[in-house]
Amino acid sequence: MKEFLEDKQLNDMSVPTVTLTHHQVQLKHVLLSTMQQKQATKSRLTLKGVIVTMNKQKNILTGAGIAGALAIAVFAFSVITPPKSANAMEIARNASHALMNMTPEDQATEYNKYRPHFLDWLQQAQQAPDLRVLTYDQFIAAYPEAMEASPRSGEPLRVIDNPADGAMPNVHELRYLEFTVTDGDSKSKVVVGINAQNIPEAAMTSVVKMGAPRIGA
Amino acid sequence: MQQEHDLVERAKQDSTAFGDVYDLYYPKIFNYILRRVGDIEIAEDVTTEVFMKALGRIHTFTWRGVPFSAWLYRIASNEMANYFRDKHTRNISLETMMEEQGFEPASDFDIETAYIEAQEEIDRHQQFLRVQRVIMELPLKYQEALSLRYFEKKSIAEISHIMSKRPGTIKSILSRGAEKVRKALLQGIH
């Protein structure tokens, strides 16, 4: 093995170069398909946020008469409904506060795209009479479909894969705020997963009542 | 460099651009892994892991004077470290992912032919195989530095980027590593 005594000879050593076309092509198919599914997931998450925003704006425009009626309804509802968990309310407030006070560096990250939607949801959460907080185990028990991940179907729980702090979310450690969002006749349960730093990192919506389609809506 | 920058930035959002990035780097990354692990099927599995990780993390890549290729090689090195540490277990099956996404697998005949040709290419490089066997028995930092230098023909600066170590440290690792290789070869162990 005298030929390898010199560094130059190691440098000049010929090495094999292999081409595996089938693997390269198959992996590319899977990667691009996965990327397209992820983009579709992000679009859906964004769309949900837009829907919630539209609902809120619509509510503002309903007029004082309806507001008065709502106030009576809310009062009546609050009498017959158990008070919402103080802990859940505190988590929602802290998360809103954390999102509103993100540093400019954090706001420069990809996460900032989701921030307005999470803020919107958290405001809705604070107004929802049924707001409650769930542990991971309680969340999975209530929504067994949540973690049924499959590249084909997509998992119902959308976990933000580019959080502000760069670390991948640990779904076991999130606290899950659950509340109902009403849109006309439709009702959906919204679940927002919040990490220990009060930053939302996951979200899921589950339709509990499908309303009739509205013409011209 | 500017072209690479533009392509990678587009690849963060655009699957076509990601496909272009993949086509550009797949041959380099696959062969780097193959030359490190010396087994075609394992190289396929580790390469799959590397590009799945790259897809999941590409949005976190920021330009701080380190080329994108160095970032990919670093993922590859980490995945190989995982592979060696986890006693060579396979984490991702491309076949399973293909099935889940409804793609038709390539025919067994085509795959078998490709493996035979690949193995023949490896077997034609007996000097490489002798050195590779020696390097495989060294600690990971020597494996990584020596492979990048002598198999991938990377410069000290590139290896420094990939291994996140100062050039002086890389030179020292290479010098000690090459000495270990020479001693082992002279002793005729391999």
Q: Overview of this structure, please?
A:
The complex is a heterodimer of chains A (217) and B (190). In chain A, helix 2 packs across helix 6 (115-127) and helix 4 (86-100) packs antiparallel against helix 6. In chain A, 47% of the residues lie in helices and 15% in strands. A five-stranded antiparallel sheet of chain A has the order 1-3-4-5-2. Chain A has helices at 7-11, 21-60, 64-80, 86-100, 104-107, 115-127, 136-142; strands at residues 132-134, 158-159, 175-183, 186-194, 200-209. Chain B is mainly alpha-helical. Chain B folds into two domains: 1-92, Rna Polymerase Sigma Factor, Chain: A; 125-190, Winged helix-like DNA-binding domain superfamily/Winged helix DNA-binding domain (Arc Repressor Mutant, subunit A, Orthogonal Bundle), CATH 1.10.10.10. Chain B is built from ten helices and no strands. Chain B has helices spanning 2-11, 15-37, 40-57, 68-85, 94-100, 108-123, 126-136, 140-151, 156-163, 167-186. Chains A and B meet through helix 1 and helix 2 of A and helix 2, helix 3, helix 5, helix 6 and helix 7 of B.
